[in-house]
UniProtKB/TrEMBL annotation, chains A, B:
Keywords on record: Hydrolase
PANTHER family: ALPHA-GLUCURONIDASE A
Residues spanning the membrane: none
Domain of life: Bacteria
InterPro entries (UniProt xref): A-glucoronidase_C_sf, GH, Glyco_hydro_67_aGlcAse, Glyco_hydro_67_C, Glyco_hydro_67_cat, Hex-like_dom2
Encoding gene, per UniProt annotation: aguA_1
Protein's name according to its UniProt entry: Xylan alpha-(1->2)-glucuronosidase
Record-annotated Glycosyl hydrolase family 67 C-terminal domain positions: 437-658
Record has Hydrolase as a keyword: yes
Glycosyl hydrolase family 67 catalytic domain: residues covered: 111-436
Pfam family, one: Glyco_hydro_67M
Length: 661, 661
């Protein structure tokens, strides 16, 4: 029944040279907790497999590696310093988690065959909270999961086994310090996860997680006091409801080591919430926050709230505006242990969206950036789509909320407003497939997300190279070719799918494959408004006014089509097909060109991969090859459907006379 | 668990006048079989409920009603004559089924308060086989079922209870003489229906059916010899396979009274068939035919065979051609107890299709017309759509296969080619809803299909009036208003859905609600090819050539756009939006106009129904009202999506300046 699993980027292959073996004779640590123990044993395991060194414990004086807790060294509990001098390696931190992260950093250096001599590295994690959200259901399915079933749940049972530890190692090795194991849509038996029913398994799981410095969080059902507690309401202002949650929190924090808190999706897509009782999201979140505050607990509150019963004929209502409209009036009203979890864009994980205006809007509210590595709309782990370049762009976006330190990364790392309850979270892409992520190259997103959350100064190329070295070794040809595939992949995917930020041209429901009008006459607020003359949604001040939700400078940029960055042109403006883009070609010609290019690049990526046949393990080669062959042909389907759709609407021929069906 | 059910058109209400009571004092029959017994007890029951007469059995001399078997009277086993003279009513036939049909005819007269004096009616059923196909699955679901779950199956069990008899009464009362109880897609436990597993229940069921003159048929899985018999193939030319089916037939005919034979969907939409073994459909069907021949059994072989993996870019392949292409070469190759079951049109039960060219094409093959009353594409029993006018048009279609007697009705009744194994079949619209058909008005299709199959000379207005009188009584206002709704309903549905025969503008999969491009880029061969300039599929000789599958005269009619009947214009031709139709308006204006009209008529039908509030039973009134309110608003959704789609493509404004979104 239980499926095998591989080690992903922690698959240690023996080093081809012996430059670093001298450093790994023995290890000392002054840490006495479980995480320090984890650090030592991870180091020992890696030294053995990578270098053939059997590391003993040694004294402070003798040990060749020292993992040292140094109070007040300025690194914090999670930061670390690695110093090498005279054949001795020191990893220092104020906390054991810092030591563990330092050890994993050393291991990455060894995997990359980097020399340790004279090394001096100092890292403090960028984001305080570095989180994964798993949308795993208790029946074992995963909402928007594309790599098998859940390894957390099966048939209403919580699974705790070797794979739980293997997962915790992977997550911790890249710096993840918080994990939500269950789907934000909490229904059925998942509502009972906070009951005694699953206490034994959750205790065992949180213990494993705690050993790797990971806090376990649970998604909760806002209506739990009714469904479990027999109360007649879940009104956050009802003292009985408040009391019920207090008791629930006391119970959970009493028995789950390092328990983090709750994630809540309320009043969204049919989930219950405070609106039912005429209360605000702040009242809802604060009630829960009060219940967990004395344990240092946090409430993560999702901002994905919109009207999902829209009429396509209504051109005034704009789903993009709903997050800001709902949450801006509440700025400053949330407790200090509430964090708003805000999707990167105002819609829903499309291949290209502007940054949510809540970033830079909210000034007195903790916020956290939510991205999705599950590729729901970006190829579902069947297409290669290395998403780190997108995440990086989002983080570097200048919100203009002040003169400097105004980027999204400044906000979510606490630099802008001095917050400490903030960070970044990804909807995870794992499942019980042997390689964890279905597509082997999708693991670069999991690895990369963790690495970027820990160190936002890393370039996306550096992250790709680290992952390739750890996963496939650092053969220059492998490095160059897989890097090339990864770096091409997001722009290529964007080229052959929906153009210039318009999004949503997918099959409704499962969100895979082209369907230009798939959502056009539906109730989800996701329209492209294409007619014979042009396409795009007018979100300027004379349209829906969404652009005005940004700070002045950005509002001016987005509000006028001549200032608007062209990759987002159709998100903000309705543009005639014959409009000339800055590169001199018309919009329609740009659509044709990018689609021909995208499909051709998908084929090119396949060719590059095929040239690696002798270089990567056969199983991996074939798994990836099969998916990339599908991608190449599916990209042609995208190309042809999109091009035909626009040709049939506009009847403007391709200037190059290529085949449009 | 078991749901209640109503009596539909067999709900007898007490007559308001006593004109006919004198005739129903006593009854005599010289029939000695079960069907004659049924006829007597049906007559007794109706006389009691309708007239308050308690009918005794009487002698030939004394009885006021005589049900008389008269050998060689020229009526056949199923025909009947009703004669009234001097207060005495005689029903005569050569067979007991004829007596039963005669009795039901008398009952309809009583329900309609018609006088019996001097009556002289002689009827011989038009179609030898008058069949219903139920697409019921063993788990209790019904494929394309819109009126609850199955009353034949539940949780892999066969149900035989009071409702079985109630169903048989309904079917028999309108002349149905053959019923297939299980879905043509035979999978899982349905494959085992021909095994001993269900013998007790099927015996009981076929006994009930036989009492009403109905032959039970079963859909079979062509791969049964492998799945059940452990054979390595299902090759129809393999003697072991042939032997397996022979034994199976011997077993079934041995234990099921009046068992009819098998219905087979082979090599279609993923179902197994003879193609797997390089055999023809004739070889497959004949093998089965040989197995059942000695029992007088029949094999009904469906002609719904096409490539369901088509590429939308391919404009040469035409799904419409596949039935003819597959079966014409086999004309004359089938055994005499094989009947080809041919859908009315070449596609799949759209609101408007041309008649399949297999009618009039095949000359030496038994054929049966298949229609669908389940309304899969015609409103799914949520919209009113009285389909008899469509069926009538199909039956009256002149195939031009000879000088006269060349209509579809001539072919399927055996008049053209002298066949006796032929007839008409409907995919049924029943389920375990209390009123049998979900929408109360949908019962008119079930009633009407049976009546038309028995008497193709009936007009669709007469059938509607018969059904209304039996169901609601013959109050003139009820009669006029419900007739009006029924007679409007098909043209109205056609107006607000896809225009001029093009079809398919529905949501993929569940086939409900508008989605103009829903199937346009899919693999099902169902395209409209709409671009900025026009719409329609060129099936002329210079297009796919489908029109050439018809006999010369029809080929010429369909092949040229100026000769083509306009209701099928877009089925046969790609037409510019500014093309002027014979009524003087452009195609695009016709699309706009019909959609505004259709939505407005849907509202008008609702208004008519609402005016009947005091006239029909409250439960029925409310059930129908709810559905008609939905229909009226759904028709607006259709109107707006279709009009917007074409406006956005053509940018040609509505001449009347009405609102197009």
């Amino acid at each position: 029944m239980e499926k095998k699993y591989e080690k992903a980027w922690l698959s240690y292959r023996r080093s081809r040279n012996a430059q670093n073996t001298g450093h790994f004779g023995s290890v000392f640590t002054n840490g006495t907790g479980v995480v320090a123990e984890t650090a030592v044993s991870e180091l020992q395991g890696a030294a053995k497999e990578l270098l053939g060194c059997h590391m003993e414990r040694g004294s402070w004086e003798e040990a060749s590696v020292r993992l040292i807790l140094e109070p007040n060294c300025g690194l914090g509990e999670e930061g670390y310093e690695i110093r090498e001098s005279a054949g001795r390696l020191t990893v220092a931190s104020e906390g054991e988690r810092g030591l563990l992260y330092g050890v994993f950093a050393c291991i990455r250096l060894l995997q990359g065959e980097k020399p340790l001599e004279g090394l001096s590295v100092r890292k403090i994690p960028s984001a305080p909270l570095r989180m994964l959200n798993h949308w795993d259901n208790m029946d074992g399915s995963i909402e928007r999961g594309y790599s098998g079933d859940s390894f957390f749940f099966r048939e209403d049972k919580v699974l705790v086994d070797d794979r739980t530890r293997a997962y915790a190692r992977l997550a911790s090795s890249v710096g993840i310090n918080a994990v939500v194991i269950n789907n934000v849509n909490v229904k059925g038996s998942a509502t009972r996860l906070i009951e005694d029913d699953y206490s034994r398994e959750l205790e065992a799981m949180s213990e494993i997680f705690a050993g790797y410095g990971i806090a376990l969080y649970l998604s909760i059902n806002f209506a739990a006091p009714m469904e479990l507690g027999g109360h007649e309401s879940a009104d956050p202002c009802d003292p009985q409801v408040q009391q019920w949650w207090k008791e629930k929190a006391a119970d959970l924090y009493g028995r789950l080591p390092g328990f983090g808190g709750f994630l809540v999706k309320a009043d969204s897509e049919g989930r219950p919430g405070p609106f039912t009782y005429g209360r605000t999201h702040a009242e809802g979140a604060n009630m829960l926050a009060d219940a967990v505050a004395s344990y240092g607990g946090r409430i993560i509150w999702r901002c994905f709230v919109y009207n999902c019963q829209q009429d396509w004929r209504d051109k005034k209502t704009d789903r993009a505006k709903s997050g800001y409209d709902n949450f801006m009036p509440l700025d400053g009203k949330f407790r200090d242990n509430v964090i708003l979890q805000i999707k990167n864009g105002p819609m829903d994980f499309q291949v290209r969206e502007p940054v949510s205006p809540l970033f830079g809007g909210l000034e007195h509210t903790n916020s956290m950036l939510e991205v999705q590595i599950a590729q729901e709309y970006t190829g579902q782990q069947r297409h290669v789509c290395y998403l780190l370049p997108m995440f990086k762009q989002v983080l570097e976006f200048k919100t203009c909320c002040r003169e400097d330190h105004d980027r999204v990364r400044d906000i979510v790392t606490g630099r802008t407003f001095g917050q400490t309850n903030c960070g970044i979270v990804a909807v995870a892409n794992t499942g019980d497939d042997e390689n964890w992520t279905g597509h082997d190259l999708a693991a670069a997103n999991l690895f990369g997300f963790g690495r970027l959350s820990f160190d936002m100064d890393l370039s996306v190329e550096e992250i790709a190279e680290e992952w390739i070295a750890c996963t496939f070794g650092n053969d220059p040809e492998i490095m160059e070719k897989i890097s090339k595939i990864l770096m091409m992949s997001w722009p290529t995917y964007e080229k052959y799918t929906s153009p210039l930020g318009i999004g949503w041209m997918v099959n409704p429901g499962y969100h895979y494959g082209p369907n230009v009008d798939g959502y056009e006459y539906d109730r989800w607020g996701t329209y492209h408004r294409a007619d014979h003359k042009g396409i795009g949604v007018d979100r300027s001040p004379t349209g829906t006014g969404y652009s005005e939700q940004y700070r002045r400078q950005n509002a001016d940029m987005y509000g006028k089509r001549e200032n608007c960055p062209e990759e987002l042109l159709l998100f903000f403006h309705h543009i005639p097909y014959d409009y000339r883009l800055s590169i001199g070609k018309t919009l329609i010609q740009h659509i044709y060109d990018t689609h021909f290019e995208g499909a051709s690049e998908a084929k090119e990526m396949l060719d590059i991969w095929n040239s690696l046949e002798s270089k990567v393990p056969e199983t991996v080669f074939e798994r990836v090859q099969k998916r990339m062959e599908h991608q190449a042909s599916h990209a042609e389907e995208w190309r042809d459907q999109i091009n035909t759709y626009f040709y049939r609407k506009s009847m403007i021929p391709d200037e190059q006379g290529r085949k449009i069906y």
